[in-house]
Amino acid sequence: MTLHRFHVNDLPAMPWKNGGGVTREIVCQPPGAGTGAGAVDFDWRVSIAHIASDGPFSAFPGVDRIITLLRGGGVHLLSDDGQVDHLLNTPLAPFAFAGEAPTHAHLLQGDCHDFNVMTRRAACSASLQLVRSACDWPAAPQGLLMAVQGDWLLEGRLVEQLMPQQGLWWTDVSLAWQLRPQSPNAALLALAIHFH
After folding, report:
1. Confidence class of residue 38 from pLDDT cuts 50, 70 and 90?
2. What confidence score (pLDDT) does residue 1 get?
3. CA–CA dist 47, 126 (Å, integer)
4. Which domains does the chain have, with CATH numbers?
5. Neighbour tally for 174: CB within 10 Å
6. What's the CA angle centered on 40, arms 13 and 45, to 5 degrees?
7. How do residues 162-183 score in pLDDT, each as one tens digit?
8. Torsion of CA 57, 62, 67, 73, to 10 degrees
9. What is the pLDDT at residue 31?
10. What are the tens digits of pLDDT across the range 40-80?
C-alpha cells in the first residue's frame, strides 16, 4: 500500500511560465508523468495554485478539471468560446470544467489560493466533495483527503489524524474511511479517483 502524507507549507512552489502565479503540486500519478512537450501523460494530478494576477489558464485537451477556492477574493473564469463563465468566489465550492477551452482568470479582489484537480478523461474520473460533518467515505482505489479547517480523525484500515493544511493521498489499494471532525467549523476536501 502506498500512503503519502503532506503539509501544504512543505510543498515546493513552482512559478508559472507567465509569471501570474505559483503552483504547489501535491500529487501527480503515475510517478514521473507530467505535461511535457504539450502532451498530457498523467492520469490525475492535484495541486494548489496561488493566483497573483489576471492571466490565461493553460489548455489541457482531454483533461477534466475541478477548481475550488480555498481563500482570497476569487476569480472570474471565462473561456473564449463562452462555455466557461463562472464566478469562483464562494470558498470551498468545487467547480468542474473541461480543460480544452482556453480559459482566462480575472481576479475579483486581490490574489487567491485554489485547490486544483485534473484527470485525463480517457483514464479516470474524479469526485470531489466538501465534508463538514462525520461521514463514511466509500472505498476508492486512489484518492486524497485534505483538512482545510479544524482537526480530523480518519479511521479505516489505518487511523490517521489531520490538522489544517495537512492531507494524505493513496494509490494501489482501495481504502474507505470514517471521517470524523474533531473541532467546530471543520472542513475537509475528499477526492476519489475512479478508473474506467
Report:
1. low
2. 66
3. 14
4. 10-121 (2.60.120.10), 125-195 (2.60.120.10)
5. 13
6. 45
7. 999 999 999 989 999 999 999 9
8. 20
9. 86
10. 789 999 999 999 999 988 889 999 999 999 999 999 999 98
Report which DSSP code applies to 54: -
CB neighbourhood size of 94 (10 A): 18
- What one-letter code names the amino acid at 190? A
d(CA 36, CA 33): 8
Q: What is the DSSP string of 6-49?
A: EEGGGSPEEE-TTSSEEEEEEEEESTT---GGG----SEEEEEE
Which pTM was predicted?
Answer: 0.95
CB 66 within 8 A of CB 126: yes
Compute the C-alpha angle 57/193/81, nearest 5°.
30
